[in-house]
Amino acid sequence: MEGLIDLIPHSFNLYEEGDISVININGVKDYLKEKTAITVTVFGNIYEGLSEKQIETIAQKIARLRIKNPMKRALSNMIYDTEVNYERERIKDPTWKTFGILYEGLLYQQVLNEFILEGRLNEQYCTVLLTNQLIGTWDQDSLRYHIRTSIYGFPHIISIPGLVMGPAKPREFYLKRQMGVPMELLEEEYKGKVLEHRDWRMTEVLKGYMMQALFYHLTGNPFCEDRDCRLFNSHWQEDMIHAQLGGNYEFCPRHEGILNRVRNRVSIR
Amino acid sequence: MVERKEKIFTPVSEKEVTRAIVDGFAKQFIEYVESDCLIIGGGPSGLMAGRDIALRGVKTLIVERNNYIGGGFWIGGYLMNKVTVREPGQEILEELGIPYEEATKGLYVADGPHACSKLISSACDAGVKFANMTIFDDVILKEGNRVCGAVVNWTPVQALPREITCVDPIALEAKIVVDSTGHDACVVKKLEERGLLKTSGYGAMWVEQSEDLVVQHTGEAHPGLIVTGMAVATTYGLPRMGPTFGAMLLSGRKGAQIILKKMNKS
Fold it and tell me: What is the chain B residue with the closest CA to A77?
C-alpha cells in the first residue's frame, strides 16, 4: 500500500448542476453510507447563493470552454453575447435540461475550483459535482477530444449524460449509423445493451463512479484493471454495464479490503 | 346550354401587361429599398420571424435566392413531403391553421405543401414583402460596424460566368438584418470574412438536443444582425438538427421577439 494518500474524508459533499432527476440521489447517498460509513451531505444546486456579479463572471468563463471542433485542441477566442446569455440562463435555472455543448473538462473543473467552490474544497471532503452537461478532454493518441464520464480531482465531476455518451457503443452500432439505419431502429436493437438517457439503471451505474471518486481521493488512482470490479475504467458501454451491474463481485478483493478498512476507519497504508 | 357571346377576359395589350408588372415591382421595390427589417432567407425561420414582426407593424422585406419561398419546409427529409415538429411546435401549426397528426407521443406530422403554403400565406397576410430570385452578396456596415443592410443581386447573375455578366449589385438598407439562410449562414460568413465574427460550423446530427440549443442560441450575433434557424447552428457550432422543423418555427418566433424588443414594439 506504499504511496497511498490515506485521507479518509469526513464527508462526501455532493453538488448538482442542472436537472439530474434521472438519478435517485437518496439511493446514492444510502449506498455510499453503507459502503464507506462516511457521512454524505447533499448540497443541491452548485450555483445556489451566488451573487449576480459572480454569475456573470462564471457565465463569461464557462462560455469560453466550449469545444466547437473536437478535432482541434483549441478553444475559440471569440465569445458571443448569445453564448454568455445561454450560460447565464443555464446557471440561474437549477432545472435546466438542455445539454449538447461539449465543455473542456479540465478547465471546467478549474472554474469550479476557483470561482464556485472556492473555500469549500479541501482534503477532508470528497467533493463531487453531478452535472447534466457534457465534458471532454483531449486525447493525445487519437488527437481529438473525447466525451468523458468523469474527471477526478478537486472537485470530482461526474457527467450524467456522459455515462451514456462517454463509453463507446459497440462498433457495429456506429457502422450501422453510418449506413443510415434510423436511430429509432438502433435504439430498439441495442436496448438494454447500452445505457440510455432516461435509463432506470443510471443510479446503479453512478454508484460505481462515486466509488471511483472516493478511491481517487484515497489513493490517487480511481481505477482497477479487473473488469469485474466497479472501479474498472470502462471505455465501452458493454464493459461499463458489466462492471457496474454484472460483475462476479462488486469490488475486487484488493479494493474490497481497502473499503473494509475505510468502513472501520483503519489506516489503509 | 347558353352560349357566351362576349370574351371572358377584358382585352389588354401586351404593353399594358408589361407596364403593370414593371410599375408594381418598381413601386414596391422603391418603397422597400429601406425597411425596418431585412430578412435574408425565406425558409421557415425567416418566414416565421417575418410574419410575427409584420403583424406588429414592422416593415419587413424577405430576400430569397430561389424563385420559390419556403426553403426546406416543403419536404420533410429524403424527398418525402411530410414535415415533423416536436412538442410544443404543434402549437404554431395550430396557430397557422395547418392540419397535423400525432405520430408518436410529442411528435407531430403535417403535410409539407400544406404547412409551407400556409406559413407563406400567413407571412404575406401579415404584410411581409418578398424579393425572390435575389441573392445576398454582402453586408452594409456603418458606425461601429453595425449591420445596416445588405447588398443584393439577381440570382441568375451569379450563375453566369463573369466574362458574360458584370452586373453590379445594389444595396438595401434596414434597421435590423436577419440571417436565416440555413446552414450556409451567408450573412454571418460575410462578417467572418471581415474578421468581425467567427463561425464554428455545425456538428453531427443530434435531433433531441439540437432543437433546444438552436432556439436557446437564437439572438443578436453582431450589432444589427439577428441569427435564426439553422444559421444559428453554424454560427455557434451546435449539433445538426435533422428533418424536424419545430426549432425553425420557434427560433423564428424568438428572433421576432428580440427584434420587437429592440424596436420597442414588444
Answer: B198
